[in-house]
């Protein structure tokens, strides 16, 4: 990528980063009035920005950041705000409707996740960077939602396994290189990811009966485990013969 293209890419990222940073500040300093919440959310947003900006400059093949990546950036910001609630759950008691915020946040993340692929296809800005960005934001959102469900919704402790499986699989890829091989596009994988966010969102809805927590968690965890097992077996048995090709609209 040329220097001019890099400058254009950074300029394209700037409005989204500024808007997301303003949202984090407004939520922490103006609405919640809680220093721990604000610091935790800012730390999560800062970590994402520190990874995304240099990653995009090095690996994004287009001079435009694109609306799809801006949507993924917004999802990452929403995830950072939800992470702040883990550190400061008392924030949910500041307003009568605040108890619905985790559920509303999970629903917003799920709806936005349906948009970025379509935007990437429409703008012709699909890339491996966008696909990886989308995947890592999904994984971070599931980890945060699973921890939040345990922290504030009395979900069973094994709910944390839903958020941990992605990172355990990545660790397996470092230990067994065959597991780190590129995977072909899978609609099944996308559906299972959506099921995890939907199930965790349901756990965070105040009317969800306590008895349903273990059922929802078990169904979601079993589906995710089977999905990872299928990917792992494919990587170990047939992955060596696979040559990745960018499918139209993959990622953002």
Notable traits:
single chain; 252 residues; mainly alpha; 9 helices; 0% strand; globular; disordered C terminus
Q: Could you describe the 3D structure shown?
A:
By secondary structure, the protein is mostly helical. It has 9 helices and no strands. The chain has helices spanning 3-32, 35-59, 67-87, 101-113, 116-123, 128-152, 160-175, 187-203, 210-237. Helix 3 packs antiparallel against helix 4 (101-113), helix 3 runs parallel beside helix 6 (128-152) and helix 4 runs antiparallel to helix 8. It is globular, with a radius of gyration of 19 Å. 38% of the residues are buried.
Secondary structure: elements and pairs:
Elements: H1 3-32, H2 35-59, H3 67-87, H4 101-113, H5 116-123, H6 128-152, H7 160-175, H8 187-203, H9 210-237
Helix pairs in contact: 1-2, 1-3, 2-3, 3-4, 3-5, 3-6, 4-6, 4-8, 6-7, 6-8, 7-9, 8-9
Q: How far apart are the termini?
A: 18 Å
Based on Cα principal axes, name the global outline.
globular
Percent of sequence in beta strands: under 5%
- Classify the secondary structure makeup into a structural class: mainly alpha
Largest sheet: none
- Indicate the radius of gyration in whole angstroms: 19 Å
H/E element string?
Answer: HHHHHHHHH
Helix content: over 70%
Poorly predicted runs are 247-252
- Averaging pLDDT over every residue, what do you get? 83
């Amino acid at each position: 990528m040329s220097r001019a293209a890099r400058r254009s890419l950074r300029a394209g990222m700037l409005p989204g980063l500024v808007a997301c940073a303003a949202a984090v500040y407004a939520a922490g300093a103006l609405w919640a009035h809680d220093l721990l919440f604000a610091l935790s959310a800012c730390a999560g947003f800062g970590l994402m920005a520190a990874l995304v900006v240099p990653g995009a400059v090095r690996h994004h093949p287009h001079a435009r950041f694109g609306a799809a990546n801006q949507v993924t950036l917004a999802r990452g910001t929403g995830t950072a705000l939800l992470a702040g609630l883990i550190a400061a759950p008392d924030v949910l008691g500041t307003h009568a409707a605040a108890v619905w915020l985790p559920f509303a946040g999970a629903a917003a993340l799920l709806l936005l996740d349906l948009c970025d692929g379509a935007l990437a296809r429409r703008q012709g800005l699909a890339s491996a960077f966008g696909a990886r960005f989308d995947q890592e934001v999904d994984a971070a959102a599931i980890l945060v939602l699973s921890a939040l469900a345990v922290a504030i919704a009395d979900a069973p402790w094994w709910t944390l396994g839903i958020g941990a499986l992605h990172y355990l699989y990545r660790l397996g890829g470092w230990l067994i290189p065959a597991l780190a091989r590129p995977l072909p596009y899978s609609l099944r994988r996308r559906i299972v990811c959506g099921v995890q966010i939907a199930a965790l969102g349901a756990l965070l809805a105040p009317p969800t009966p306590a008895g349903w927590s273990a059922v929802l968690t078990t169904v979601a965890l079993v589906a995710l485990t089977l999905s990872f097992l299928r990917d792992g077996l494919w990587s170990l048995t047939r992955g060596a013969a696979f040559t990745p090709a960018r499918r139209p609209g993959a990622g953002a």
